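Worked example (supplementary).
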Amino acid sequence: MTTEPTPTPAPPTKNMHFIREIIAADNRSGKYGGQVVTRFPPEPNGYLHIGHAKAICLDFGMALENNGRCHLRMDDTNPVKEDVEYTDAIKEDVRWLGFDWGPHYYHASDYFEQMYELACGLIRDGKAYVCELTSEEWKDYRGIPTEPGRESPFRQRSPEENLDLFQRMRAGEFPDGSKVLRAKIDMTSPNLHMRDPVIYRILHVPHPHAGDQWCIYPMYDYAHPIEDAIEKITHSMCTLEFEVHRPLYDWVIQNCNLFPSQQIEFARLELTYTVMSKRKLLELVRQKHVNGWDDPRLPTLCGLRRRGVPPAAIREFCERIGVTKYDSLTDVALLEHCIRDDLNKTVPRAMAVLDPVRLVFDNPDELPATIQAANNPEDPAAGAREIPFEPELFIEREDFAEVPPPKYFRLAPGKSVRLRNAGFVTCTGFEKDAAGNITLIRGRFTPMNQPVKVKATIHWVPAQAARPVEVRLYDRLFTVPEPDADKNVDFMTHLNPDSLQTVQALAEPSLLAAQPGDRFQFERIGYFYAEPDSRPNAPVFNRTVTLKDSWKG
RNA sequence: UGCCCGAUGGUGUAACGGUAGCACAGCAGACUCUGGAUCUGUUAGUCUAGGUUCAAAUCCUAGUCGGGCAACCA
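After joint prediction of all chains, the assembly is encoded as:
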């Protein structure tokens, strides 16, 4: 017998996006000695959303793939806007997404002393000066994109005087806004960010992390490259709008003689049927269009978590959307696909009826007492459970049609369907109330071992044993793909009035034991997540996503 | 009006001078105890105009369109 050499299965080829290319090239050239160190640097002034997830997956992902490491760093250089309230939430969300920063948790504010020393160095080198122009005056001096700026009258101060003034700024001798430290670069640069940018401002406010030891705070453009360099970050990824800041990033690295971290910009994620800006999310929360930051309709990570979206689905989504340098708008259907794909393989099935109508059997003597149901047809190891079967069941109102439309395969007078896991029913009659609503359906039961030719299977619950449960049906928050596309139309006008419908459903008995955080597929309906604030024996289910439904009634 | 970045089916992306491929969505079919899942087929694309080349989505030039930049925000 000849044995063919087993071909080594090719590793799953990941999309070779431009950042992977850059890292591979750096590794080949030995630019950083083969090291890959990245960082995720959120500003602790808001909750993380799925746009951040893209960055998190990129930052941590590139490190992981290259046996490097990724730091979690609170970019807290503006005490006016930031709060410790957010740092715990940020950590929880990153951890939930599945990433581990190990011991590498940092605060930009921990580097304030070094930043100060480096600023003094710039002053000594004649590369920074204390300027007393008001912000209004500075606007005039800075010029506009099409015209060069003019030099500040304070630009030629001596290093000694600058050093003295800067020290006194730190000592708290001057009020907010009276002085700033500027980098001395080029007032004629076509890049506004290079026209002697402010690198320190006076802010007499305590810092949420550093306490009250500072009254001067560094600006992002100055602080960020220093933070990266101190941590020996090799690849510092950020979004496209920082592209024009890169020359300043490089200037700081060079003029402060720092580790050569490099900034790489990529396009942020935009998703259809939602909004991503912090301001707009805040507005939705403040105006109570949603119930808090973790409302399942929000694209926040805590919202997605509460909706029941598994973190693996988000990671898969982030891999699939790729990384580029041009703006794009990703169809939320791709996210939904990733969610279904994950849940289909992993989640147990159960039956629940959202809009019940009674089904009564004509032949109660011929019924089984219980039936066996597979917990997950995709996973035999998930086992089976027993469901009581009764002479009266509830089925979904939309699974019966008095007058079936063309291609309607479900129950109708004289027609048969399969009852999921149980047998068949043939409709023998029905009753209506005065308003014309179906109040009861009659049918004849046929056991599974006498197959009836049917084209559909419907779900059901036993009338006595079923229990009422609260089900929250979440839908898209907005009715249009780009709610904030038109600057002249308030995005709020596109809110979907039906984004949340709460219904009392009837669930099979086993569902009563659901623990907060459990996930299920309600067969033929969708995937559901037991609310964190479900109470014992009174679970509340959030709809994560519907099942695909190819029937177009 | 200045500078920077970008442009591939409806959407997200790949192709690194040599057959425009993948995924989502759509459509059609097969299969099925979920009208689910799975499988198959299929519709549909290189912004425009020049140039270089045997050969251009890819390189060059110009234009068009889109995005970003004029916080003591990040």
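Two points are worth noting when inspecting this output. Residues 112-219 of chain A form a domain with the Glutamyl-tRNA Synthetase; domain 3 fold (CATH 3.90.800.10). Chain A has three domains: 18-107+222-338, 112-219, 350-464.
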